Amino acid sequence: MKILVTGSAGFIGFFTTQALLKAGHSVIGIDNLNDYYDVNLKQDRLDFLKQFCAEHDCLDSYQFIQMDIYDREAMAELFENNPFDRVIHLAAQAGVRYSIENPQAYVDSNLVGFVNILEGCRQQKTAHLIYASSSSVYGMNRSVPFSTDDRVDFPISLYAATKKSNELMAHTYSHLYDIPTTGLRFFTVYGPWGRPDMAYFSFTQKILKGETINVFNHGKMERDFTYIDDIVEGIVRVMDRIPEPEAQEITNAQAPYKIYNIGNNQPITLERFIQAIEQATGKKAIRNQLPMQPGDVPRTYADVSELMEDVNFKPATEIETGIQNFVDWFRHYRSL
């Protein structure tokens, strides 16, 4: 198939693109290569993909275009010139805390950009749009594990609000234009080639240097950390499960629309997470214990029963295994 992957120089987009190419698909990847975090890391991912294609004889199957999904005309032209069999939309302005200080960036990318994706799919009658949502939509949800049947009307960050908005807009387009859409609520993704703004990246860097790490909520927060390979496996499996038109539980509005959680279904404390990094690095962390930050939630916990039922998959990578893989990559990457 011919597949569009937005955010293909990003963490999840990079691994997804590689998996699709390995499976024999043709991929056009787009990314604006913004400086939210180190652009060199994004460029290194792209260079790795080129090397991968050269080694696996798929150079003709992969094209990268530097483009901003906010650019309405460029996006319209992209869709007009490339009838995609699937669109996997992973581009977004990420980060909960960054949204508190820079709200406009989230409006441009996560709202306006997403409408441009939906419009492209509508004009070209794309067979299936798969897009990244987030566990952050659950906010301070007290019911665990988090189910896609739970109400998610009370976001506590603008980032979460934009992701919930994506789900609402996708349902509207599915209902009005019969565009099959599947939203994936990712739970705290980690692994090699990950984002430097994420805790596991900065913790590893500081622990190796003997620097102090800030431990919020005194290490008592719980996260459903999900390894990158499990996230990509979920994306690939869901890609070919095109939702059929159906009414949701509380509405008669028919739409080929679906939401899944992709999480490890096994939340762990921040303290155990830090201990896994200590074990992998062989060094003890110097902790600065702090209270919870604004926009943070005490716990995330994914109910993945629908994912298991529909595509026979459940993430299962243990945190110690995933963190060891990350630390090994980190040491190698930083030595280059």
**What number is the mean pLDDT?**
94
In which range does the helix fraction lie? 40-55%
Low-pLDDT parts are none
Q: Note the run of SSEs as H and E.
A: EHEHEHEHHEHEEHEEEHEEEEHEHH
Distance between the amino and carboxyl termini: 35 Å
Structural class: alpha/beta
Helical run tally? 11
Radius of gyration: 19 Å
Strand fraction band?
Answer: 15-25%
Largest sheet: 7 strands, parallel
Order of neighbouring strands in the sheet with most strands: 3-2-1-4-5-6-13
Quick synopsis:
The protein is α/β, with parallel strands linked by helices. The chain contains eleven helices and 15 strands.
State the main characteristics.
15 strands, seven-stranded parallel β-sheet, 18% strand, 11 helices, 336 residues, alpha/beta, 43% helix, two-stranded parallel ribbon
Would you spell out the secondary-structure blueprint of this structure?
Elements: E1 2-6, H1 11-22, E2 26-31, H2 39-55, E3 62-66, H3 72-81, E4 86-89, H4 96-101, H5 103-124, E5 129-134, H6 158-177, E6 181-186, E7 189-190, H7 199-209, E8 212-216, E9 222-223, E10 226-227, H8 228-239, E11 246-247, E12 254-255, E13 257-262, E14 268-269, H9 270-281, E15 286-290, H10 305-311, H11 319-335
Helix pairs in contact: 1-2, 1-8, 3-5, 5-6, 7-9, 9-11
Q: Can you describe what's shown?
A:
- The chain is α/β, with parallel strands linked by helices and 336 residues long.
- It is 43% helix and 18% strand.
- The protein contains 11 helices and 15 strands.
- The chain has helices at 11-22, 39-55, 72-81, 96-101, 103-124, 158-177, 199-209, 228-239, 270-281, 305-311, 319-335, and strands at 2-6, 26-31, 62-66, 86-89, 129-134, 181-186, 189-190, 212-216, 222-223, 226-227, 246-247, 254-255, 257-262, 268-269, 286-290.
- The chain has a 7-stranded parallel β-sheet with strand order 3-2-1-4-5-6-13, with helices on both faces.
- Strand 2, helix 2 (39-55) and strand 3 (62-66) form a beta-alpha-beta unit.
- The radius of gyration is 19 Å and the shape is globular.
- The mean pLDDT is 94.
